[in-house]
Specification:
The protein has a domain at 1-18 and 243-280 and 284-363. The protein is built from 17 helices and 4 strands. The chain has helices spanning 10-18, 35-39, 53-66, 71-79, 99-106, 108-119, 122-130, 153-170, 173-178, 194-197, 209-219, 235-238, 244-258, 268-280, 286-297, 301-318, 328-344; strands spanning 47-48, 51-52, 140-144, 147-151. A hairpin with a 2-residue loop joins β3 (140-144) and β4. α8 (153-170) runs antiparallel to α11.
């Protein structure tokens, strides 16, 4: 059965390359003027899920930049939790006294989105979108303090795109456990479930949230929302979906290979498991990247090239990693090594030589 590999979009990859440099944000004319003020609030020292709060804010802004979102949406990504929210107690600007300061920094329209995103019920927002509650014109009615609150179609589109980037940037198995079944969170006593609480846990990729992200992406196809914002280049530009069953199966198959839960002397079982993982979930790069390395080890250069190019396409589409054990730019870097090796037909035959591989000029 043919594997659902993707063709590498060189234009998209070029956009991703520009964001691999850690200094990309300081060169961004929209975001750079805001960065010093944000950093002055110690966001680089606050814990946040798989890193620091700075890592998270910058990662969300990077994905939105890669997705070619307009200025106000990208600023919302960079500032999306600075007034605090129901999920985190990280209040970096006091919404009661500092709204005018943030307005002066980013403009009224961007600050309005930040304030609304921080103060509305995001749990309710996600749940209502998943329930298909969008109005005919694309607006959405929520409740705030017992009163109806209507989000305009433009606000709904903005919050959908930012929620997609926000979720993929931070979610991994630790949150699968402690935030079980979000947005209908199961409340479990911490002391009883102490093993699930141990951060960061095994750092498996999430086995449930990519399905939810695909449903948020699908909502952007609503007639009242289409054309309001550029569609993120994930899930075939938000035209395809990922079932919960396929996501769970793919994550399990992938992790069984990572944990080496199969015969270790031959490649056939691990290769078959990864191929099946890709069939279940062709939208993330990590399983395809590992598969490319197995193909190289087996001397299957053409298949390795196809898998590496497809993995690179997935990484370029997301701007964030699915497997949080290493950062997005590291996954991209190793995938480029694999692609180079497949194209040149050179792959180390000795383990110690893997330590020496490097990207040649032109690759």
């Amino acid at each position: 059965m043919t594997l659902p590999f993707h063709t590498l979009d060189t234009t998209l990859f070029a956009r991703a390359q520009a964001l691999l440099d850690e200094e990309w944000l300081s060169h961004d004319s929209d975001l750079a003027p805001v960065l010093p003020t944000v950093l002055a609030r110690n966001v680089g020292q606050d814990w946040h899920k798989a890193g620091t709060f700075r890592h998270h804010l910058v990662g969300v802004a990077r994905a939105l930049t890669l997705w070619q979102q307009p200025r106000d949406i990208r600023l919302l990504g960079l500032l999306h939790s600075v007034y605090g929210n129901a999920f985190v107690d990280l209040v970096k600007f006091d919404p009661a006294s500092e709204r005018a300061r943030l307005q002066a920094l980013v403009g009224e329209s961007a600050e309005h989105l930040v304030y609304l995103f921080c103060t509305m019920s995001r749990t309710q927002f996600v749940q209502r979108v998943l329930d298909g509650a969008l109005e005919t014109d694309g607006s959405l009615v929520l409740e705030k303090n017992g009163q109806p609150q209507r989000l305009t179609p433009s606000e709904v589109a903005a919050f959908l795109v930012v929620s997609m980037a926000d979720t993929i940037e931070q979610w991994f198995s630790w949150q699968d456990d402690i935030f079980s079944r979000f947005p209908q969170v199961q409340q479990r006593p911490q002391a009883t479930h102490w093993a699930a609480s141990l951060w960061p846990g095994p750092m498996r990729p999430s086995a449930r949230m990519l399905h939810q992200i695909s449903r948020l992406a699908d909502a952007l196809q609503h007639p009242g929302l289409k054309g309001l914002l550029p569609l993120p280049p994930v899930f075939d530009t938000c035209r395809r979906s990922l079932s919960a069953a396929d996501e769970a199966a793919a994550a399990s198959l992938y992790w069984s290979v990572i944990q080496q839960d199969m015969p270790l002397l031959d490649l056939d079982v691990a290769t078959a498991l990864l191929e099946q993982a890709v069939r279940h979930n062709p939208w993330v790069g990590e399983p395809q990247m590992v598969l490319a390395q197995l193909y190289l080890s087996a001397g299957r250069q053409a298949e390795a090239q196809a898998a590496a190019e497809s993995a690179l396409q997935c990484f370029s589409a997301w701007g964030c990693s699915w497997d949080k054990r290493v950062a997005w730019d590291a996954w991209v870097a190793w995938t480029r090594i694999l692609l180079q090796s497949a194209q040149t037909g050179r792959w180390p035959e000795r383990l110690d030589k893997l330590n020496n591989v490097a990207l040649a000029p032109g690759f």
